[in-house]
Design goal:
Blueprint lengths: L5 E6 L9 H13 L4 E8 L5 H8 L4 E6 L2 H14 L3 H6 L2 H14 L3 E5 L4 H4 L7 E6 L2 H6 L10 H18 L5 E4 L2 H4 L11 E2 L18 E6 L5 H15 L7 E4 L5 H9 L3 E4 L6 H4 L2 E6 L9 H8 L4 E3 L1 H7 L8 E2 L3 H13 L1 H18 L2 H12 L3
Parallel strand pairs: 1-2, 1-4, 2-3, 4-5, 5-6, 6-7, 8-9, 8-11, 9-10, 11-12, 12-13
């Protein structure tokens, strides 16, 4: 019988496979938290989860429970969210049937602590007062939505404005329902509009040390970009790469790789001969090392770009925007290159491709920076201390 204290982990998605940032964060935190706690995973899902994927989490969890939400329940709950002034982000993932089941599970498990990822899950447990609860905001979702308003179609702008307003209000209100609060970066914490937001602890993402151990090969492309290709900030980044960089330098080639390419990404790839589009692959490191330079022209979105951590960990020199770099706090011209205009990106690409000394310096310094600052073991130990604190 385990003498570890019981921790319930509540997620808005089943954390496998690792094609999305929230799933990656949850999966690696679970692997580390299982060393300290006896884990009980409760995951919301809008689709069936294959047994093989569930087995990946069974290695670390005493019990794994799926709360299945149907398309009909999603429609109903979005309707009620609209009229209750709650964010659609919470409405989508909430169901009364699911809450009843979670209440029964909590009564059975009798956890010592609860760790809830993203405000999407907070409605299920906000009024549970039997044990201390920790909410991981992860990102400032309100700011991510707000940054998308300008690029949204005219007919959708009101939806984004409404959701950004709802999220800002909800992020502030939900703060007081949880004993402990975490977020992915100081940059995101500044966007939570609660007077005591300084109490939110920054818990960054990390890199599995095994990730570094991958054989080098001769890159086939000048540039590589990787990410969830149905996610709006990544779609915009692909548009930027094609329209602002590749069309201005016809000699450059680029690999775009990631899960579920949006039709916009597929169209861009078809119309841009310099782009090779590759979907999800089992070992994403294969895609990373196919490029000489990792480029991440992120102009919207929030949070921490795992793609940058992973590329730097593999010793690939990176070019990114100030917005993306603010979260990881790398130093321009030391371990990363920062650019914010097409001209700056093109100049940085040219410099790396034509200056071998600069290329090696940014690559090796970037890898050393990640080794020193981004470890799942280190960041999750800090999280474990927060979860179990009084």
């Amino acid at each position: 019988m385990s003498n570890k204290e019981k921790l319930v982990v509540l997620l808005s998605r089943f954390p496998y496979p690792l094609e999305k940032g929230d799933k990656l964060r949850a999966y690696h935190q679970i692997t580390e938290l299982s060393k300290t706690f006896e884990l009980y995973l409760i995951a919301i899902s809008d689709h069936d989860i294959p047994q093989a994927h569930q087995q990946q989490l069974a290695k670390f969890c005493k019990e794994t429970h799926l709360i299945r939400i149907t398309k009909w329940s999603i429609v109903v709950n979005l309707f009620f969210a609209f009229f209750s002034n709650k964010p659609f982000q919470t409405g989508y993932f909430f169901s009364l049937k699911g809450k009843k089941r979670i209440d029964v599970l909590l009564e059975s498990i009798k956890p010592n602590y609860i760790y809830s990822q993203l405000i999407r899950t907070s409605e299920y447990i906000k009024n549970y007062h039997v044990c201390p609860k920790t909410i991981d905001y992860m990102d400032a979702l309100s700011m991510g939505i707000e940054r998308r308003i300008e690029k949204a179609p005219w007919y959708a702008k009101w939806i984004f404005r409404s959701e950004a307003k709802r999220l800002k209000n909800y992020e502030r209100i939900i703060f007081d329902y949880f004993e402990h609060k975490t977020i992915i970066s100081d940059q995101d914490r500044a966007f939570i509009l609660h007077p005591n937001r300084h109490e939110i602890a920054s818990i960054p993402n990390g890199i599995d040390t095994r990730f570094f151990d991958y054989p080098k090969s001769t890159p086939r492309y000048d540039l590589v970009f990787i990410g969830n290709l149905s996610y709006a900030p990544n779609i915009e980044a692909v548009e930027y790469i094609s329209e602002q960089l590749l069309q201005k330098n016809k000699h450059l080639t680029c690999l775009i790789s990631g899960a579920t390419p949006h039709q916009t990404v597929e169209k861009i790839a078809r119309n841009t001969p310099q782009i090779t589009l590759q979907g999800w692959i089992d070992d994403i490191r294969e895609a990373y090392v196919s490029g000489k330079i990792f480029i991440a022209p992120m102009m919207i979105g929030t949070g921490m770009q795992n793609k940058l951590l992973e590329a730097m960990a593999l010793g690939i020199p990176c070019i990114t925007s100030t917005l993306a770099n603010n979260a990881i706090q790398a130093t321009h011209d030391v371990n990363i290159l920062v650019a914010n205009t097409p001209e700056e990106f093109l100049a940085a690409i040219d410099a790396l491709l034509n200056d071998g000394a600069l290329y090696q310096r940014i690559a090796s310094n970037g890898q050393a920076f990640i080794r020193e600052n981004y470890s799942w073991e280190k960041s999750t130990q800090e999280l474990a201390n927060i979860i179990s604190s009084n």
